TrEMBL record:
Matches recorded under Pfam families: Flavoprotein
Superkingdom, taxonomy of origin: Eukaryota
Domain Flavoprotein, chain residue ranges per copy: 41-185
GO biological process, one term: coenzyme A biosynthetic process
Cellular component aspect of the GO annotation: phosphopantothenoylcysteine decarboxylase complex
InterPro entries named among the record's database cross-references: Ankyrin_rpt-contain_sf (IPR036770), Flavin_trans-like (IPR036551), Flavoprotein (IPR003382)
The protein, known as: Flavoprotein domain-containing protein
MF terms (GO), sorted A to Z: FMN binding; phosphopantothenoylcysteine decarboxylase activity
Similarity comment text for this entry: Belongs to the HFCD (homooligomeric flavin containing Cys decarboxylase) superfamily.
Length: 601
């Protein structure tokens, strides 16, 4: 009978929620997922054209783009069957009109949610009527509500859609010119134009505009993921730069070329060696294999990439002058310009190829990426003094990312820039996760020492820190030095109750020892410290708790469940042996199985 009851309890555990009395662990995002490429949230909207190609051709091509998450708003004149077909590629909605209080509130809420979710708005096509309403700030449907609510630090790609006669009308030219000159967050692409045969609308331009649009979205994905997986640690940024040209030149020192070759072979940095014109035995990385093949670059973009890598500003100017101005800059081109801080090339593009410059480096791209990915204050200074960026908009990711990467020089630049410092809890959380004590010290030096609730007069040059879950990240990552820093920093921080649990689950005995030395018998923990260590196969942690002298409780049912869910192989066997040596008996009755026990009792 007891065995039957126990089996029922096990089955209930398998399908039902965990013990509700059990304290919940604080959810800690994974900041260590370096290899993951983030997705670009794209909101696609189409108005004024109900041709089947929009749903059957354009929408699938956008949905198939890698690293893109898509949501769709289609014209209200599409049928229910069309909406169902669109829903096979993404979450699809119709461009609902505002009519009545209930519907109006629903439209406003939907627009707010979509504006918050989307990184990029794609309008393909937008008809002349909607275009005119957008310019005058109307909000009589879902799409116009989104346009009026849109955060202009995020880009919009616009494909106009209208008849040939409308496109040639002076009013259209006036409207498009206004957008291009004053609404610089909107990039206007080639139009989709149509004519009429009888009572049917015939699309006269489709392939070129839609290909252009798909390429533009792909380019935005590249811009978002630029530098993904690139190691630009503070130590690796030391390089030789020419103040005159802003491009890399051969080191002017007494070291023989053979020694430089050995140095670069050791560092494994093929790109830097090529830029400095130093011979190396390193094979080209995968991104550069086709460029350096015997037959040479395969196309225009590969030739441009190689020119930027090996040439100087004059070479790049000559290449563009003798070929053509590219519609986009590739991911490799952008990475080279940012990594090697080619500010003269940026200035040339800004002065002579404004559309290309703004499409690539506009909005918040330069400050965000220069700070968080490349650590280049030269780029930041170019951005600060550029006439193209009068509003100086940037995202908190700039300071958050610089903190994660350990770029104290970037943080110092922001401090002296005269601009307000935008950051979130992620700044200290990510610095703690990565073990950057020097970054934490920098933030502490900028902080006010008065508490929010008691402050009457606050030094405006000081900032209020946002510790967030920093101690959780440090404990989870095993950053003992960071945990010690927080303990001695004098800064109050929450979530102390999670330290023992996270350190135990992730096998960090050093963190447990430090925490115990500082807190003594006041360490906050529960039976999950043993459950987590058991599940993860951490015998060292179990042994530490046994020798700690602390009264640690457990239940046989929890330990058995952890053993079943935990590691197999040698680690799993080692944990089972440890529990067997320390009095665990899985053959007990139900009452004993659920009874609270204590380690070493």
């Amino acid at each position: 009978m007891a065995s039957d009851t126990r089996q029922k309890l096990l089955a209930r555990r398998a399908v039902g929620p965990r013990n509700s009395s059990r304290p919940l662990c604080v959810a800690v995002p994974d900041f260590d997922g370096e290899g993951r490429t983030p997705d670009l949230n794209v909101l696609f909207a189409s108005t004024g054209c109900i041709d089947a190609k929009i749903i059957d051709d354009l929408l699938p091509r956008l949905a198939r783009l890698p690293d893109v998450r898509l949501r769709t708003i289609i014209d209200v004149d599409f049928t229910g069957a069309d909406l169902i077909r669109a829903s096979t590629h993404s979450l699809a909605l119709q461009n609902t009109a505002r009519n009545g209080p209930v519907n109006t509130q629903s439209v406003e809420q939907e627009a707010a949610d979509l504006c918050e979710w989307a990184n990029l708005l794609v309008l393909g096509p937008m008809d002349a009527n909607t275009l005119a309403k957008m310019l005058h700030g109307h909000t009589d449907n879902l799409l116009l509500e989104i346009m009026r609510s849109w955060n202009v630090s995020k880009k919009v790609l616009l494909v106009p859609g209208m008849s040939h006669l409308m496109w040639e009308n002076p009013m259209t030219k006036k409207q498009i010119t206004k957008i291009r000159r004053k609404w610089n967050w909107i990039q206007v692409l080639e139009p989709i134009l149509w004519s009429f045969e009888g009572d049917k609308k015939k699309l006269d331009t489709w392939d070129a505009p839609t290909e252009d649009l798909v390429d533009a979205v792909r380019n935005q994905v590249d811009l978002m993921n630029i530098g993904q997986g690139l190691d630009v640690s503070p130590a690796s940024r030391i390089m030789i730069t020419s103040a005159r040209t802003g491009v890399m030149e051969t080191p002017n020192c007494l070291l023989p070329p053979e020694l430089w070759t050995i140095i670069f072979d050791f560092t494994g940095d093929w790109e830097l060696a090529q830029t400095l014109h130093i011979y190396t035995n390193l094979p080209p990385p995968a991104d550069w294999t086709s460029h350096t093949a015997r037959q040479g670059p395969r196309n225009y973009m590969e030739a441009l990439e190689l020119t930027i890598l090996r040439g100087n500003l004059a070479d790049v100017k000559h290449f563009i002058a003798t070929h053509s101005v590219p519609r986009w800059l590739s991911k490799l081109c952008i990475k080279l310009i940012m990594r090697f801080a080619m500010t003269p090339l940026l200035a040339h593009l800004e002065a002579n190829h404004k559309d290309l410059f703004w499409a690539t480096f506009g909005h918040t791209f330069l400050p965000d990426k220069a700070s968080s990915v490349f650590g280049r204050t030269e780029i930041l200074e170019f951005w600060r003094t550029s006439p193209s960026f009068l509003t100086k908009e940037y995202n908190p990711e700039a300071l958050d990312g610089a903190s994660r990467a350990g770029f104290v020089n970037v943080l110092e630049w922001w401090q002296h820039s005269g601009l307000p410092l935008k950051f979130t809890e992620a700044a200290l959380e990510q610095a703690s996760s990565q073990g950057h004590v020097e970054v934490l010290e920098w933030w502490k030096s900028q902080s006010t020492t008065v508490d929010d609730t008691t402050a009457s007069v606050v030094d405006s040059s000081k900032i209020r820190l946002k510790p967030g879950k920093s101690i959780c990240f440090a404990s989870q990552s095993g950053q003992t030095a960071v945990v010690r820093w927080w303990l001695h920093s004098g800064i109050s921080f929450p979530h102390e109750d999670t330290v023992a649990k996270l350190a135990s689950t992730h096998g960090h005995v050093e963190v447990l020892q430090l925490w115990h030395e500082h807190k003594g018998s006041k360490v906050i923990f529960d039976n999950q410290v043993l459950v987590g260590a058991t599940k993860m196969g951490s015998v060292d942690v179990l042994e530490w708790w046994k020798k700690s002298g602390l009264k640690v409780e457990y239940k046989t049912c929890d330990v058995e469940e952890a053993l079943e869910d935990g590691h197999e192989g040698e680690r799993g066997l080692a944990v089972r042996r440890w529990w067997a040596r320390n009095g665990l008996n899985l053959g007990v009755g139900t009452s004993e199985w659920m009874k609270t026990k204590f380690l070493n009792s």
